[in-house]
Amino acid sequence: AEIMNTRQQCKRIYSWVGRAKSSDQKMKTFQYRGILIKSERSLTEMCILLGEFVLVEGANADQPFVAKLLKLYEDGSQEKHAVVQWFSRITELPLNKRKLLRREVSPQEIFLDKAPGYGTDINVETIIKNVKVIPLAPEEVVPVRSKGKQIFFVKESWDGKCFKPLSPGLLSELKEAEKKKRVGSPTPLTDCQVFPSDFICSLKAETDRVTRSTMKTKNIQMEIESRHSASKSSLSKERHSQRVANGINTPGARKKLQLNSMYTAILYLIVMAMENVQGQVQNLCLLITMIIRETKQQQKTFSYQIIIPRCCCAAVFKLSLDIHCLVFPNLFFFFSFLNISEQDQEDDYLPSTDCSDSSSSEEEESMVPCTPKRKTRSSTTLSTPKSSRKPSDTTPANTPRKSVRFLEAIGLKNICSGLHVSTIPGSLPCREEEFQDIYNFVESKLIDGTGGCMYISGVPGTGKTATVHEVIRCLQQAAENDELPSFQFIEINGMKLTDPHQAYVQILQLLTGQKVTATHAAELLAKLFSTPGPKRKTTVLIVDELDLLWTRKQDVMYNLFDWPTQRQAKLIILAIANTMDLPERIMMNRVASRLGLTRMSFQPYTYKQLQQIISSRLNHIKAFEEDAIQLVSRKVAALSGDARRCLDICRRSTEICEFSSQKSASGLVSMAHVMKAIDEMFSSPYINSIRNASLHEQMFLKAIIAEFRRSGLEEATVQQIYHQHVALCRIEGLQIPTVSEIMAICSRLGACRFLLVESNNKYLHVRVRLNISQDDVMYALKQE
Amino acid sequence: MSKRKSKETSSVNGECISQVQRILRERFCHQCPNGKLFGVQLQYKHLLELLKRTTIHGESNSALIIGPRGSGKTMLLNHVLKELMEAKQVRENLMQVHLNGLLQTNDKIALKEITRQLQMENVVGDKVFGSFAENLAFLLEALKKGDRDSSCPVLFILDEFDLFVHHKNQTLLYNLFDISQSAQTPVTVIGLTCRQDILELLEKRVKSRFSHRQIYLMNSFDFKQYLRIFKEQLYLPAEFLYKPFTQKWNKNVQSLSEDRTVQDVLQNHFHCSKDLRSLHMLLMLALSSITVSHPFMTGSDLLEASKSCRMDSKANIVHGLSVLEICLIIAMKHLNDVYEGEPFNFQMVYNGEMKVSTLKSINITLLLLK
C-alpha cells in the first residue's frame, strides 16, 4: 500500500520494510520493523528501522520534531502509524523552565522528553527522515558543530518538572543503538555498492535484502574483523574479534564511564568521519594514534595494551586504502573495543552467544524480533517513558488565587490606583460560580485531550474577559505544577481585527509565528487542525467580541467552530460576545450547531455584588463611607450593572474628595462627593446647555415649539419658525434678527444636535426637528 | 519747528497704530495660546489634574470635552498642555498624538498618522505602511508592551471626535479606550466635540470602556462678564512699547465700555450669539477702521461693524439688481402672497408683471433673458 503524501511539495511515498513481523488479530494491527521512504523528486530511498531517530513534521516547518521510533504498525483502516519517544529541543520547552538548566544550551542539544501530555502515536507520513542523535554522558560537553548536517546530542531528560541526566542504563542503551546505526542507516541504499564486491559476496544471501538492518551492519563488521584477522593470520585476533562482536550485542553494557572524555573525542571523530571528505582522512589517522597513545599513558592497568596499537595499525591500514567508507567500521571497531575492554575489567569474560556464530542472514532476520536480548532492550527503552507518561489524575485546587496585599500608607492615590479598571485584581469576587464552570469545562477537555466550544455572553463590563483570563491563569499555574497537561493559550479579539478574515492570520501567527495572507492562513490552520498532529499540545483559544467575526458567508465562524469538532484538533474555544441569543440571531444553522449548547451568560452585577467588588478593590481599607459605596452600587446596578462604570465613579469621587476644599468630617469619601461624581457622569447636558445658550437661541427653540403646536406636526421649515421667532421678538421687545442670523443660530443648534437639520442647501426651506423632548426645552426655559 | 514735531508725532503714531493692529489682529484671528480663558477655571483645573495623573503617575484615562462651536475647547486644551509642558519631566516624556476627524476620515489613515506621530515608522521600515491589519497589530503590540511605570505616557487628542464614531466598527475608539482601561502603556484619550449626544453614538462596548468623564464648556457668562471680556480683548498689554499711547488707548476702551450705544451694540450681539469668535469678528471689523488720523475706536465704529456683521446676505443681493429684475421679484412676491407659497411658473409671473407694471414697454424677450 503506497500512500501519496501531498503535504510536502516534495512527494514522499511510504511503504513497509518486509512483512508484518507480528500481528494482533483482535486489534487488527500489523507491526513492522521498518519503513521505507521514497522521495519522488530525488528518487532516493531511505530506510528507517525501529529504534532509529527521526524528524517529524511539526507546525513549524523549520523546526521539525525529533523522536525515536518505537513501534510501527498498521491498523484496520490501512493507515500507517508509528509510536515514538519524543525528544525536545530547548525551544520547545517552557520558557520559565529553561533557566533550570543553568547553562548555555546549544541548539543541537535535545532532551529526552518524558513530560506527559504529548500523544506518542503519530501518522507515519509525518516522518520526514532519519537523523543522528548522539547520547552524551553527563560530564561530556556538547561539541560545537558546524551547521552543515543535522546532528543532535542528547544529554539530559526532561520530565516536565526538572532536568535529569540520562540514567547510565539508558545512556548505554542509546549508545548501543547509536553504534548500530552508525554504519548503515543514514546512507542511502545505493551506497551499498561502495563495498568491495568480495565483501558483498562473503555476506551470504545479503543481496536479497532490501535494506541494511542493524543486524547486517554487525555482520559487516564481523566480516571486516575476520578479514583483519585473516590478513594477520593470528588466532588470538580471531578470538578477540569474536569477543568484540559479543560486546556489541551484550545487553547490559554497564559502564564505569571512566573513559568518558575519550568517548567524546572518539564520538567526535566518528561524527567528523561521517561527514568527511577524503582530505581529512589523514588527520583522522593522526588523531586516532594520538588518542591511543594517550590511552596507553592513562590506563596503565589496561589489559589490552598490546591490542590497541594493533587495532590502530589496522585502522590506519584500512584508512590508507582510501575507501573511506570502510573507515567507519574500523573506528567502530575501535570504539567498541574500548567499550568491551572496560566492561571486561569489571566482569569476567562473557561466553560467546549464538549471535556471533550465526552468519546466515535468513536466520538472523527471523531472529531479529525474537532474540531475548533485543526484547529486553526494547522493553527498557519503552518502559521508562511510559512510566513517566502516566497522566496525573490529581485535580488542581480550583479556588482562585488570592493575593493579600498590605498597604501601609493609606493615600488616596493608592486607592485610586486600586480602583482603576486596569488593575488586575487578585481574585474576582461575585464570579466564583462562572469561574468554576468555565474552569471545569476547560479542565475536563484538557484532561481528555479533546476539543470543544463554549459560548459566553453578557452585557459589557460584567467581567467576562476578566473571568476567562483568570481561568486561564489558574490553568496555566496548574499546568506548571504538573497537575494538568500543558496547553497553549492564544487569544484574538474581533475588535482588534480589521477584517474578520484576519482572524486566521492572527491565530496562525500566535500559534506558529508565521506571517501569511488570510486565505493561506486558513488553509494552513485547517491542515494543522485536521491532521493528527504529532506532538501538539491542546490549544485554548479565546475569541473575544465574536459578533464582529460575522461575514455574509459566515465562513470564519464556521471554521472556528468546526475545528474543535475534529478528533485530532485538540482545540478548546471560548467565544465571548455581548448578546445572549447571538447564535440564534446571526448564525446560520450549521454554524450554531457546531458551536454547541455549552453556553454561559454573565448576569449584570447586582448592587450587592458591586458593593463587594468595590470593597475588595479597596483592599478593605476604609476610604469610603458605607452609604457612599451603597449609593454608587445601587446607582450603577439600576443603570447598567457595569462594573467599569462603578469603578470609574469611585475613582472620580476620590479625586473630587481629594480636591474639594470642605472635607467631610471623617476625611472619607462621602455621599456628597459620590453624588457630584454621578452628576458629572450621568446628568443630561441638554438642560444646562440650553440655559447657557444665547437669548436668540433660546427664542428660536421657543419658536420651534410654538410652530409645532400651531401646525400639530413635529417638523417645520426655518421659514415658518422665523415667522414665529419674529412674533416672539416683538412681544419681548427685542431687536429682530435678520434671516442670516437666524440661519446661523439654526446651524449652531444643529451642530450641538439640539436640532436635527436637513443637510441640504434649501436655505429658508430647510426642515428642522427637535432632537430633545419639548418638555425638556420648556423646563429649561421656564426657570428664567 | 512745530511742523517737524507734528511730523515726528505722526510717524510715532503710525508706528503705534500698526503695532496695535498687529497685536489685536493676532489676538482676534489666531487662536494664540497667549489668549485668555474666560469662565472655565473649573474645567481647566479638572483637565489639568487629569493630564497630570497620566503624565506623572502613569494612570490611564479618557475624557471628552464637549461644548458648542467657538466655546474654547481647543484653547482650553492648549492652555492645559502649555502649563503641563512647563514641567521638565513632562516635556521630556509626554508624547502627543493629534488627530482630527476631518483629516483622518477612516481608521487606516488614522493609524498611519498615529504611527507617524509616535515616530515609529522607521522602527519597522516600510512595513508599517503595509496592510491595515499589520499596522493595527503592530501598533497594538507596541502599546501593549509598555507598562505603567517605565513607558512614556501617550496623549491622544481626537479633534472632531464625533466623526471618529462613524468609522467602521469604531475599531480605533475601541482599541484606544481598551488600552486606557488596561494595564498597558499609560494613555489618555481626550476627545473634543460639539455634539451633546456624543455618548449615545458610542457603541455599547466602546461606551463601557469610556470612563464617562465629560468636561462641558458652556459659555456660561452673563452680559456683565461679556463686557469685561470685551474690554480685556481690546486692552493693550502693559509691555506695549509706547506707554502714553497705551494709557490713552486703554482709557478709551474703558470709556467705550461705558458708552450707551456701544453697550447696545454689544447687547444685541450677545443676544444673538455668546461665542467669543463672533465677538472677535465684530472687533476685527471695528479695528480695521482705525488709521493714523483716526487712532481710537469709537462707538460709531462698532455700530458700523455690527451692521456689516448682521447684514442679511440675500437682502444685500437685491440691492444690486436692475429695475427690471426688481420688477420681476416684486411680481413673484405678489404671487407668493396670493398662492401662499405654492409654486408658480414664468407665465404667471409675466402676467402679473403686466398687470402691475407701469412700464408697458417691457419686452418679454428681455425678461426671459434675465
TrEMBL record, chain A:
Residues 46-169 form the BAH domain. SMART domains: AAA (SM00382), BAH (SM00439), Cdc6_C (SM01074). GO terms for molecular function: ATP binding; ATP hydrolysis activity; chromatin binding; DNA replication origin binding; metal ion binding. It is found in: Nucleus. GO terms for cellular component: nuclear origin of replication recognition complex. Keywords: ATP-binding, DNA replication, DNA-binding, Magnesium, Metal-binding, Nucleotide-binding, Nucleus, Phosphoprotein. It comes from the Eukaryota. GO terms for biological process: DNA replication initiation; mitotic DNA replication checkpoint signaling. Belongs to the ORC1 family. Component of the origin recognition complex (ORC) that binds origins of replication. DNA-binding is ATP-dependent, however specific DNA sequences that define origins of replication have not been identified so far. ORC is required to assemble the pre-replication complex necessary to initiate DNA replication. PANTHER family: CELL DIVISION CONTROL PROTEIN 6-RELATED (PTHR10763), ORIGIN RECOGNITION COMPLEX SUBUNIT 1 (PTHR10763:SF23). Component of ORC, a complex composed of at least 6 subunits: ORC1, ORC2, ORC3, ORC4, ORC5 and ORC6. ORC is regulated in a cell-cycle dependent manner. It is sequentially assembled at the exit from anaphase of mitosis and disassembled as cells enter S phase. Interacts with CDC6 and KAT7/HBO1. Interacts with LRWD1 predominantly during the G1 phase and with less affinity during mitosis, when phosphorylated. This is Origin recognition complex subunit 1. It comes from Chelydra serpentina (Snapping turtle).
UniProtKB/TrEMBL annotation, chain B:
It is found in: Nucleus. Its main location: nucleus. InterPro entries: AAA+_ATPase, ATPase_AAA_core, ORC4, ORC4_C, P-loop_NTPase. GO terms for biological process: DNA replication initiation. Pfam families: AAA (PF00004), ORC4_C (PF14629). Residues 59-219 form the AAA+ ATPase domain. Keywords: ATP-binding, DNA replication, DNA-binding, Nucleotide-binding, Nucleus. One of its GO terms (cellular component) is cytoplasm. GO terms for molecular function: ATP binding; ATP hydrolysis activity; DNA replication origin binding. Component of ORC, a complex composed of at least 6 subunits: ORC1, ORC2, ORC3, ORC4, ORC5 and ORC6. ORC is regulated in a cell-cycle dependent manner. It is sequentially assembled at the exit from anaphase of mitosis and disassembled as cells enter S phase. Interacts with DBF4. Interacts with POLQ. Belongs to the ORC4 family. Component of the origin recognition complex (ORC) that binds origins of replication. This is Origin recognition complex subunit 4.
